[in-house]
From TrEMBL:
Organism classification: Bacteria, Bacillati, Actinomycetota, Actinomycetes, Pseudonocardiales
Pfam families the record matches: ABC_membrane, ABC_tran
Residue intervals of the ABC transmembrane type-1 domain: 57-341
InterPro entries: AAA+_ATPase, ABC1_TM_dom, ABC1_TM_sf, ABC_transporter-like_ATP-bd, ABC_transporter-like_CS, P-loop_NTPase, Type_1_exporter
Residue ranges of domain ABC transporter in the record: 374-609
Entry's localization field: Cell membrane
Membrane association type: Multi-pass membrane protein
Superkingdom, natural source: Bacteria
Record-given protein name: ABC transporter
CDD domains named among the record's database cross-references: ABC_6TM_Rv0194_D2_like (cd18546)
Keyword Repressor part of the UniProt annotation: no
Length: 616
């Protein structure tokens, strides 16, 4: 079982929460929960730190904007208590100052708000850009073993749904959060200045508020972790169906897929319901506490005004401030909501970012000498700690320039041997050497230029046919691309495409057949000119002219290099210098095709006979 699969009830041993291991765990212990939160905070910090200066500027803007907006009620209090009585006595200057000041503060408020929103949008968009790029770069470098267990759907959900929820926190909530916190601080201070006893009545409301916030954080945190997991499952189901759409339609799997989707979709909805329910309870509690405080303040204030120990203007200002005190708390419920959702997303993303490639590049790489001799020295291999040994300990030497065909039943271990040569995995024990250098000591780039693997699917990237061939050597000129295509016999059909070499392979008219895709892959390999070619021959059979074309191309590509071919065709095996028959992870026969056939008793001879019979 890979790391991405690990699920269940609890995470126990020391480091088992690291990476994506805790993703599927619903009930985290407090200690693990705290570690995950610290990791998320670390990621957030690393995103904000390079933008500290501009973030401080945004903070300064929002502080000024709050000050401007807070001046309003004070000016109204001054107008009622001093401006209007003075105006009644014929002096309108105080009232004029108050009104002018109010208008000025309103203008400043708007301008500062606009500047803050623009700046914070810039910060948030850059943070997201940075995070998306970081995640993409990291995921691309993670080893095959991670991708095999984590699945592309989950990666997509990290890159889309999770990213969006972090974006929402920055875009919708940052100003609300600053406003709310600053309003609380400033208004709290103003209330204390205006009237201490009334301010203390308001502060008493904080006790239930803090309790409600703690409850909300716990409940919504749990609910949002569930929503992140659920949306990932919806996307996984979507991606899997779309990737396998041919198989889905061929096997009439639509209904089955729809019912799986329905279940995942419903659990996403339910997870969201519980998250929103928590918001509803929290927001309602905040409002209730706010209104209750207002009623109490109004009662106590009215009693004091009638008793003469408080001015009416002060009470007016107090109630105005109190409204402003609780309004942002409503927003704070939204912020807490976005925060819970975003921190669940941050937890998942930071988990992926914490995953380390299992196939590591050496710190001090050794250059690979020319030549393509391959050596397996006491190699043993299993896919993961808890899976069985696939290749029991073995030795194998392939001299430079030899073409070796691997044959054997399905699941015998042929691809595994090939993947070790291309260093998609490292052996569990022993070493694989190329020209005498352990692959673990070679730089990635060096290795990729010396060993090229052509896989069965002959994957084409979006772009033109020429772009796809040039992947083999990005610096190649058009002439070199065309001569590589010509050498493998692909020039004719490419030239006949609607835009020749510039035809987009994803567009109608640019779609290539299986045999044509194979020829493009050969041209790509020929252009790359590696010392070692690892080839997983496509299993689907081609028509006779197609097969002949591919066969001729193959012979061209194999010239002057070491080749390891997982062979599915007799014609391929027969051009090999050497055949290795693999059975249960062991090499049971090793010799030239002619010798093995001549011996007549072994697996290969039987396979050879069966092949001949099938062709007869
Ligand atoms: N990523 C993986 N994780 C765990 N086990 C794997 C993985 N890939 C292959 N195996 C197991 O390793 C064994 C050898 O598989 P391998 O793909 O090398 O066989 P093969 O000879 O290439 O088969 P085929 O001809 O069908 O491609 C099989 O038992 C398979 O189940």
């Amino acid at each position: 079982m890979g790391r991405g699969d690990r699920g269940g009830e609890g995470v126990s041993d020391e480091d088992s929460w690291r990476g994506v291991a805790a993703e599927e765990v619903n009930d985290l212990g407090t200690a693990v929960g705290a570690k995950l939160q610290a990791r998320s905070r670390g990621l957030l910090g690393s995103l904000i730190r390079p933008r500290l200066l501009v973030s401080s500027a945004a903070l300064a803007l929002v502080v000024l904007q709050n000050l401007a907006s807070l001046a309003g009620p004070l000016l109204i209090a001054a107008a009622i208590d001093r401006g209007i009585p003075a105006a009644i006595n014929g002096d309108t200057s105080v009232l004029a100052w108050c009104i002018g000041g109010y208008a000025a503060s309103a203008v400043a408020n708007s301008l500062l708000l606009m500047a803050f929103l623009r700046l914070s949008a810039r910060i948030s968009q850059n943070v997201l850009l940075d995070l998306r790029a970081r995640l993409f770069r990291h995921v691309q470098r993670l080893s095959l073993s991670f991708h095999e267990s984590y699945t592309s759907g989950k990666v997509i959900s990290r890159l889309t749904a999770d990213m969006e929820s972090i974006g929402k926190l920055f875009e919708d909530s940052l100003d609300n959060m600053f406003n709310a916190v600053l309003s609380l601080v400033f208004i709290g201070a103003l209330l204390l200045i205006l009237d201490v006893p009334l301010a203390l009545v308001v502060m008493a409301g904080f006790v239930p508020l803090v309790l409600a916030l703690r409850w909300f954080r716990r409940t919504s945190g749990r609910a949002y972790r569930r929503t992140r997991g659920a949306i990932a499952k919806v996307i996984v189901q979507f991606v899997e169906t779309m990737n396998g759409i041919r198989a889905v339609q061929a096997f009439r799997r639509e209904h089955r897929n729809e019912s799986i989707m329905e279940t995942e979709n419903a659990s996403y909805r339910d997870a969201n319901y519980s998250a929103i329910n928590a918001v509803a309870v929290f927001a309602a509690s905040v409002r209730f506490i706010g209104n209750l405080s207002l009623a109490i303040v109004l009662g106590v204030g009215a009693w004091r005004v009638t008793g003469g120990s408080m001015e009416l203007g002060v009470l007016t200002a107090f109630t105005l401030y109190l409204r402003r005190f609780y309004d942002p708390l409503d927003d704070l419920a939204q912020v807490a909501n976005s925060y819970a959702s975003a921190s669940a997303a941050l937890e998942k993303i930071s988990g992926v970012l914490e995953e380390k490639p299992t196939v590591l590049e050496p710190a001090n790489p050794k250059p690979l000498p020319p030549g393509g001799a391959i050596e397996f020295d006491q190699v043993e291999f299993r896919y993961s700690k808890d899976s069985p040994v696939v290749l029991p300990r073995f030795d194998l030497t392939i001299p430079a320039g030899q073409t070796v065909a691997l044959v054997g039943a399905t699941g015998a271990g042929k691809s595994t041997i090939a993947k070790l040569v291309a260093r998609f995995y490292d052996p569990t024990a022993g070493s694989v050497r190329l020209s005498g250098v352990d692959l673990r000591d070679a730089a990635d780039e060096d290795l990729r230029s010396k060993v090229v693997m052509v896989t069965q699917e002959n994957f084409l990237f979006s772009g033109s046919v020429a772009d796809n061939i040039a992947i083999g050597r990005p610096t190649a000129t058009r002439g070199e691309i065309e001569s590589a295509a010509a050498a493998v016999g692909a020039h004719e059909f490419i030239a006949a495409l609607p835009d020749g070499y510039d035809t987009d392979v994803r567009k109608r008219g640019g779609r290539l057949s299986a045999g044509q895709r194979q020829l493009v892959a050969f041209a790509r390999a020929l252009l790359a000119n590696p010392a070692v070619l690892v080839l997983d021959e496509a299993t689907s059979s081609l028509d006779v002219p197609g097969e002949r074309a591919v066969q001729a191309a193959l012979e061209t590509v194999l010239t002057d290099r070491t080749a390891l071919i997982i062979a599915h065709r007799l014609s391929t095996v027969l051009i090999a210098d050497r055949v290795l028959v693999v059975e249960g992870g062991r090499i049971v026969e090793d010799g030239s095709p002619a010798d093995l056939v001549a011996e007549g008793r072994g697996e290969f001879a039987a396979l050879h006979r069966a092949w001949l019979e099938s062709l007869a």
